[in-house]
Amino acid sequence: MKIHFVGAGPGDKELITLKGYKLLSEADVVIYAGSLVNPEILDYCKEGCEIHNSAYMNLGEIIDVMEKGVKEGKCVVRLQTGDFSIYGSIREQVEELAKRGIGYTCTPGVSSFLGASSALGVEYTVPEISQSLIITRMEGRTPVPPKESIESFATHQTSMVIFLSVQEIDKVVKRLIDGGYSETTPIAVVYKATWKNQKIVKGTLKDIVPKVKEEGINKTALIMVGNFLGEEYNYSKLYDKDFKHEYRK
Ligand code: SAH
Fold first, then answer.
1. In whole angstroms, how far apart are CA 169 and each of 10, 84, 214?
2. Where is each Tetrapyrrole methylase domain found (predicted)?
């Protein structure tokens, strides 16, 4: 028996993959990240499924529940918010499982940065405006390597999504400007993307801070910044009628 890591998606209970849904509906034991996973998604669990909220557990306790389940021949699902490869603390879990000789499978989820771009209906990679996306966070209790400072990424002036930092939006904005973004750069804050109580706040680096404070947003939000949110755009070559390629001569 293996542990099944499943990405729950950003919130909307229908944004889990079919594969993730199947695993969840067959699970005997589910450990879910209660601080962020929409509990409605647990409606997919079968009757009698044993449910643990990892918000109240430490790493050792999580691994103990996994090990016990596997030893009893049960189907164990570890349900993580968004996708586990982004700030998912999956590495430490799989290392601990390895020590106990337990294998695992991974079923990806829709990360919240994708839920947020869908909420806004935007493309991160607008031709000639930006062709790269930086996913980062500001340091909090978890440090960030010094080479990955907000200022240093801001020098690229490409699309950025900043996780886990909205509680210090004023500091983030200051550091983006210090790094070289102009005050007119568009920025958006998406709170609980794809949830029923989703909120979207749009502005520029100059005026976003009071807007976010007014809405009382201080957690579960993403900061999106860059000219991909602006009025300027270009059409892609891919669908240009004069652009020939492998499939369209
Ligand atoms: N693995 C998750 C991220 C976990 S870190 C993913 O792929 O999305 C937790 C942070 O993610 C939160 O502090 C917030 O910045 C962001 N987040 C998670 N769900 C969100 C949502 N629905 N809307 C906006 N931000 C979200």
1. 21, 24, 12
2. 2-208
Give SS3 for 168. Answer: helix
Place of tokens 């801070």: 209
Instruction: Give CATH 3.30.950.10 domain extents, the chain.
Output: 112-229
* DSSP, residue by residue, 23-80: HHHH-SEEEE-TTTS-GGGGGGSPTT-EEEEGGG--HHHHHHHHHHHHHTT--EEEEE
Kindly state the tokens that stand for 159. Answer: 């699309």
The residue whose CB lies within 8 Å of the most ligand 1 atoms, and thus the one to mutate among 222, 223, 224, 225, is 222
Over residues 48-99, the pLDDT tens digits come to 999 999 999 999 999 999 999 999 999 999 999 999 999 999 999 999 999 9
Q: Would you say the CB of residue 82 lies under 6 angstroms from ligand 1?
A: yes
Q: Which parts of the chain sit beneath pLDDT 70?
A: none
Residue 212 host element (H or E): helix 208-214
Superfamily of domain 112-229: Tetrapyrrole methylase, C-terminal domain (3.30.950.10)
The ligand 1 atom nearest the CA atom of 83: 7
| Residue 220, phi then psi, degrees to nearest 5 | 50, 45
Q: From 5, 36, 110, 200, give the residue whose CB has the most ligand 1 atoms within 8 Å, as the site to mutate.
A: 36
Write down the CATH superfamily of domain 2-107. Answer: Tetrapyrrole methylase, N-terminal domain (3.40.1010.10)
Residue owning the nearest CA to atom 21 of ligand 1: 192
CB of 220 closer than 6 angstroms to any ligand 1 atom = yes
* pTM score, whole prediction: 0.96
Cβ–ligand 1 distance for 38 under 6 Å, the answer no
